[in-house]
């Protein structure tokens, strides 16, 4: 395949079974013109075929890892061996109207390094803004009469009720569907439901915790550290609010940061080096991990929990951050607690490999 190789517009339209006015072509061209195709090249080639790889920014999550688009070009019929009905693919196909043999050869390392470098540019170029600040909205929508606050509130409630499964509604509801009541107690703490009160009682009566004898004073903290502990950790005035907080909310992040938690304690227990200054920095100020595996888990965690509860006919209590009152430097964020019978803790895992296989085959593999 050393000679020049091109895809003509006619061959593209024929293969995609569309014309210049088709939605797939129009939207694909928009993506191309918006420069969302940030990388395209050859990952593997032989005498009669080439494996093409491209990265396309996610239109709904521009700062997240881009869509990976893969295809195979055969010299015998110039057919792209993947589903054509995808606007990202259309935009990539349009871009391929240049000489295909001139495309850059890519390696796995190239892809990772390219996105790491390109992400800085993307973060600078794109910024999330409210709809009312977007030019296409401000130039076409005229300001009307200002609505009264109660009318706005009523309208907002109706919108949420009509879109009960929307991201906004789920975000506002959080993970506290059944563990609290709307009113507050005289001390300003939210009132807990009967189920959550029982759970708190079980935790406070733990025989295991009673058997521990750990005193913070024995560690002879420096004055600055002792002051931080008493102010930010030892004070449990936010105990119930943390219990009800949505996981990954601002309050949850703040209260979790300086505590030893269930998902992070193992890294301390198994730390064999003697550089605790470095370990402390990495533990309390970790680098935020954001990749396709993490995003996949967050996306399907609630769906997996609902499926588990429905299939087993369980009532699952969802919590925020559970802080140990006796040892407030300990905390845990369970995905759920089964209320019936044993009170089992639920831990949800959504492996990325599950995209390509069913549950049975995944477990056996």
Automatic annotation (TrEMBL):
<dbReference type="InterPro" id="IPR051703">
    <property type="entry name" value="NF-kappa-B_Signaling_Reg"/>
</dbReference>
<dbReference type="InterPro" id="IPR011604">
    <property type="entry name" value="PDDEXK-like_dom_sf"/>
</dbReference>
<dbReference type="InterPro" id="IPR011335">
    <property type="entry name" value="Restrct_endonuc-II-like"/>
</dbReference>
<dbReference type="InterPro" id="IPR019080">
    <property type="entry name" value="YqaJ_viral_recombinase"/>
</dbReference>
<dbReference type="GO" id="GO:0006281">
    <property type="term" value="P:DNA repair"/>
</dbReference>
<feature type="domain" description="YqaJ viral recombinase">
    <location>
        <begin position="252"/>
        <end position="353"/>
    </location>
</feature>
<protein>
    <recommendedName>
        <fullName>YqaJ viral recombinase domain-containing protein</fullName>
    </recommendedName>
</protein>
<dbReference type="Pfam" id="PF09588">
    <property type="entry name" value="YqaJ"/>
</dbReference>
């Amino acid at each position: 395949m050393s000679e020049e190789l091109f895809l003509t517009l006619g061959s593209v339209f024929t293969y995609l079974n569309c014309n210049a006015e088709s939605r797939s072509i129009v939207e694909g061209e928009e993506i191309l013109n918006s420069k969302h195709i940030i990388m395209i090249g050859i990952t593997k080639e032989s005498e009669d075929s080439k494996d093409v790889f491209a990265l396309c920014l996610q239109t709904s999550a521009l700062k997240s890892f881009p869509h990976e688009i893969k295809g195979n070009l055969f010299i015998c019929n110039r057919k792209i061996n993947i589903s054509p009905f995808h606007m990202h693919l259309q935009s990539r196909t349009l871009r391929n109207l240049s000489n295909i043999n001139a495309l850059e050869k890519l390696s796995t390392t190239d892809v990772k390094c390219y996105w790491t470098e390109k992400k800085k540019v993307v973060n600078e170029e794109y910024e999330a803004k409210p709809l009312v600040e977007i030019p296409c909205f401000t130039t076409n929508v005229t300001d009307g009469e200002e609505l009264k606050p109660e009318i706005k509130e009523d309208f907002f409630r109706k919108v949420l009720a009509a879109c009960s499964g929307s991201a906004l509604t789920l975000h506002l509801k959080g993970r506290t569907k059944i563990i609290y009541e709307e009113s507050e107690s005289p001390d300003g703490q939210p009132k807990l439901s009967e189920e959550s009160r029982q759970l708190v009682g079980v935790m406070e009566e733990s025989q295991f915790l009673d058997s521990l004898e750990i005193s913070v004073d024995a560690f002879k903290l420096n004055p600055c550290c002792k002051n931080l502990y008493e102010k930010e950790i030892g004070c449990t005035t936010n105990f119930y609010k943390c219990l009800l907080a949505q996981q990954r909310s601002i309050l949850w992040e703040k209260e979790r940061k300086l505590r030893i938690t269930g998902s992070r304690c193992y890294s301390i227990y198994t730390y064999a080096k003697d550089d605790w200054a470095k370990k402390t920095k990495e533990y309390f100020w970790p680098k935020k991990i954001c990749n396709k595996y993490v995003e996949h888990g967050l996306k399907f965690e609630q769906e997996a929990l609902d499926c588990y509860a429905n299939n087993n006919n369980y009532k699952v209590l969802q919590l925020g951050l559970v802080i140990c009152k006796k040892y407030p430097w300990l905390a845990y964020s369970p995905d759920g607690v089964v209320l019936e019978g044993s009170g089992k803790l639920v831990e949800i895992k959504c492996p990325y490999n599950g995209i390509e296989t069913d549950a049975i085959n995944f477990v056996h593999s």
